[in-house]
Amino acid sequence: MIVIGACTGAIVWSIEENETGSDVTPHDASINFTVFINQYTGKDGTFTVTYRKANGEENTGPGEHKIHSSFWYQSHTNEVLVHKLNENMTIYAMSTHSFWYKNDGISSPSCTYDPRMNYYAYINNLGMTSLTREHSEIESTKHHTRVYIYQGNPNEVAIIGTRQRAFLVTTYADSVNGVLLGWDTYFASDMNSDTVYEMSYWYDNMIASEPSSHLMVPPKECVPSDQAKV
Questions:
Q1: Distance separating alpha carbons of residues 172 and 163, to the nearest angstrom
Q2: 55 CA to centre of own chain
Q3: DSSP class of residue 200?
Q4: Cα–Cα dist 206/211, whole Å
Q5: Which residues pair with 180 in a beta bridge?
Q6: pTM over 0.70
Q7: Inter-CA distances, 126 with 60, 66, 154, 199, 212, Å
Q8: Which residue ranges form the domains of the chain, and what is each CATH number?
Q9: pLDDT tens digits for range 19-53
Q10: How many CB atoms lie within 10 A of CB 144?
């Protein structure tokens, strides 16, 4: 998988541009929860990656972890998702292609066009296309939020930052408005000391509404698809 950027020019929208998004539309996540809705983070959430302890230590389970900011802007109406997936990478996933935008704060920002990735493929790579509910009751997460818990498909997971095999994807749906609050992905050990144990995303302030169109426009470093090269 490669890093990509965004195209110049505006995206065509079926909604009128505004600063706060469309009207809030709650969803019932108690049955058939899906991430394929309009939703966006009003404030940044967190991305946490936890590494396994080195082999030979008393406990080879969870060890060092790092926390970074993350956001999720999703217009299912227009099949566009903007997701900051780690500390310096943001994907602009669209219906027919994607852009990966890299900005580490040190080097000049870069952007790469990817015709092999798109809106549905990216969500599928997170393991969240098909979700099943294993719990009959509402449960409380460590963030003290009442949620419905669903399991994703770890066999579909393909994430930048690790080549390890995922064995569990757990997603959390808000019990009130049915938005995606976050998910945890757990990875099997490949016997290396620096392997990833878990990747977690959490969004306290996810809103069940169409995001404002200005949030979805790729940065100026990204080139149009007819000029881009992979």
A1: 24
A2: 30
A3: E
A4: 11
A5: 173
A6: yes
A7: 25, 20, 8, 11, 24
A8: 39-216 (2.50.20)
A9: 445 577 889 898 889 999 999 999 999 999 998 87
A10: 6
